[in-house]
């Protein structure tokens, strides 16, 4: 056995991912030299922070083999809650705590309905997301909130930099580090993954599968609120549709990362987020209309779902073999 053959398969996946990122960056840099500027790098990391936090919580839901479509609505409702309280003179800490409170409460409702009520996750989260998204209009009737934002300290979160990068990027890395230790290097994380991989066996082993499932939805809601806090800090206003742009990038990041690195995980989601953000930022810098960039993200999401789903991979491999693209067809029918 050679030294090369002893390398784990994950090593080659990482190399392939890095090569893909390098190729994408090189293409954008050739088309638009400003792509490699420090200003654009700062913008990429800032956008990556918000998208990455939204995708992080979704990873926990995907790990337990569920789907959550409510977190954009939760983020919008939390954004208006935070903005309303800031405009009312409350402190920034109290406003963010209230936003987290309402977000996690909705996440727990989702989790309880899916885990204990056995309601379908997609339908349930569409419904709750629509409800809380509509509730975001109750504060101002749909008008933008901007009062007291400049003096609350919220804008400062977007202005703090270290080594040329926004503090939000370091916050993202810190949160991902904690999530990695919890999900991949703790008994809690092992139980979490077991609840998704084989819920029956996990239940027989004494793992409270339903409780872990409910917790996953709560985590997803919490990270969506943290993500929208960064959006509020960047824009300086609170609107009723602040979380509307989280859905596609978050799902694309989770499933693309899972397809590239061999399964849903915290590092895979971070990798997927980086690639999606690099693509979206490049399209924006080139002036590509949003409907084209959204189409590309949708195609990436579809590809990630196909590659991540084991059943679909087997069917695709069978189809390729049947059509004559595999070795076995030539061996069977010389």
List the defining traits of the structure above.
16 helices; mainly alpha; ABC transporter involved in vitamin B12 uptake, BtuC; 334 residues; disordered C terminus; disordered N terminus
Mean pLDDT: 84
Q: What is the structural class?
A: mainly alpha
Largest sheet, spatial ordering of strands? 1-2
* Largest β-sheet summary: 2 strands, antiparallel
Radius of gyration: 21 Å
Tell me the domain tally. 1
Proportion of residues in extended strands: under 5%
How many runs of DSSP E, i.e. beta strands?
2
Task: Tell me the helix content.
Answer: over 70%
The topology string of helices and strands comes to HHHHHHHEEHHHHHHHHH
Could you tell me how far the N terminus lies from the C terminus, measured between alpha carbons in angstroms? 32 Å
CATH architecture: Orthogonal Bundle
How many helices? The count is 16
- CATH C-level name: Mainly Alpha
Which runs of at least 5 residues are low in confidence (pLDDT < 50)? Answer: 1-5, 325-334
- Apparent shape: globular
**CATH topological fold name:** ABC transporter involved in vitamin B12 uptake, BtuC
In short:
This protein is mostly helical. The chain has helices at 9-31, 38-63, 71-87, 92-115, 121-135, 149-152, 156-159, 167-184, 187-197, 199-204, 209-235, 247-261, 266-285, 290-308, 310-322, 327-332; strands at residues 161-162, 165-166. It has 16 helices and 2 strands.
């Amino acid at each position: 056995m050679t030294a090369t053959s002893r390398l784990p398969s994950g090593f080659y996946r990482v190399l392939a991912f890095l090569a893909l990122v390098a190729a994408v960056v090189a293409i954008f840099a050739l088309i638009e030299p400003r792509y490699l500027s420090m200003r654009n790098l700062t913008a990429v990391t800032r956008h990556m922070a918000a998208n990455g936090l939204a995708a992080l919580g979704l990873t926990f839901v995907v790990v337990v083999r569920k789907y959550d479509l409510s977190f954009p609505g939760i983020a919008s409702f939390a954004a208006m809650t935070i903005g309303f309280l800031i405009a009312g003179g409350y402190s920034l800490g109290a406003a963010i705590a209230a936003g987290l409170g309402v977000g996690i409460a909705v996440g727990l409702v989702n989790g309880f309905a899916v885990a204990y009520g056995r309601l379908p996750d997609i339908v349930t989260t569409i419904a709750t997301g629509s409800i809380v998204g509509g509730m975001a209009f109750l504060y101002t009737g749909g008008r933008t909130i901007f009062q007291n934002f400049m003096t609350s300290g919220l804008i400062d979160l977007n202005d703090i930099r270290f080594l040329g990068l926004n503090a939000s990027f370091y916050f993202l890395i810190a949160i991902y580090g904690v999530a990695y230790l919890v999900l991949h290097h703790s008994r809690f994380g092992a139980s979490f993954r077991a609840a998704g991989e084989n819920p029956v066996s996990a239940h027989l082993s004494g793992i409270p599968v339903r409780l872990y499932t409910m917790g996953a939805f709560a985590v997803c809601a919490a990270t969506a609120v943290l993500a929208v806090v960064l959006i509020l800090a960047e824009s300086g206003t609170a609107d009723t549709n602040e979380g509307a742009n989280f859905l596609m990038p978050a799902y694309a990041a989770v499933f693309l990362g899972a397809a590239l690195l061999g399964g849903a995980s915290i590092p895979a989601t971070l990798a997927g987020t980086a690639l999606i953000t690099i693509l979206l930022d490049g399209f924006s810098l080139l002036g590509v209309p949003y409907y084209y960039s959204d189409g590309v993200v949708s195609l990436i999401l579809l590809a990630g779902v196909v590659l991540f789903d084991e059943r679909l991979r087997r069917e695709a491999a069978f189809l390729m073999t049947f059509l004559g693209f595999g070795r076995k067809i030539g061996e069977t029918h010389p």
